[in-house]
Amino acid sequence: MEWRSSSSTVQKLRCNARLRSARNYAIMLGRAGRTGEAIQEFQMALQLAPGAATTHFNLANLLVKQHAYDEAMAHYSEALRLDPVFVEAHCNIASLLLETGRTKDAAAHYVAALQTKADHLPAIVSLAWIYATASSEAGSQHATEAVRLAEQACRISGCKQSGVLDTLAAAYANAGRFQDAIKIGKEAFSIAKAAGEDDFADSIRARIALYENGSPFRGDK
């Protein structure tokens, strides 16, 4: 019995060593831009440990880079099934859902992420943006919550990120606070311009023009 126990322990240690090696090599390949090879290594790692949520998540991230969205969604979903409080999995699923226009489902995943980690900045900003730029009826329903979330994101980030400020401006406009929206929008524009984010700065400027005309920005237009 002792020999069998010792043999089992050795086999487990060897399996764990192979798993760590495959994961580490996959991460190295991914960082080097060798996405296809990295995917193969993560797939090998999953053969050794199919219940590893992080491995499913990392593989899904690489599949997104390959535009294999359905397969990526399957691995994100499996990561979340294995670890129901995996905040980043919730957020990445939400991002894929937004790409296919499933805004309501995406919002539900951001809400779930924030139930686990209330100060998770990407989830706060994304949910605030969804609420602030929704269709007229939905936007009105979530106007107060959009402002609350966007202001929270601003506090967390120090009000120095163009994307956060742009979201706050959209939330203010959605709530009918157009002067506040214009002021914050101009701050977002200045930061984006200074950072060389010219395309983003142009989109912010276009939204400011809407606010100056008394109109909120709607993401479905």
Please tag this protein with its features.
single chain; 221 residues; mainly alpha; Serine Threonine Protein Phosphatase 5, Tetratricopeptide repeat; 0% strand; disordered N terminus
Task: Give the secondary structure arrangement, pairings included.
Blueprint: H1 2-31, H2 35-48, H3 53-65, H4 69-82, H5 87-99, H6 103-116, H7 121-132, H8 136-141, H9 143-157, H10 162-174, H11 178-194, H12 198-212
Helix pairs in contact: 1-2, 2-3, 3-4, 4-5, 5-6, 6-7, 7-9, 7-10, 9-10, 10-11, 10-12, 11-12
Describe it.
With 221 residues, the chain is an all-alpha fold. The protein has two domains: 73 residues, Serine Threonine Protein Phosphatase 5, Tetratricopeptide repeat; 103 residues, Serine Threonine Protein Phosphatase 5, Tetratricopeptide repeat (Alpha Horseshoe), CATH 1.25.40. Helices cover 80% and strands 0% of the residues. It starts with a helix and ends in a 9-residue tail after the last helix.
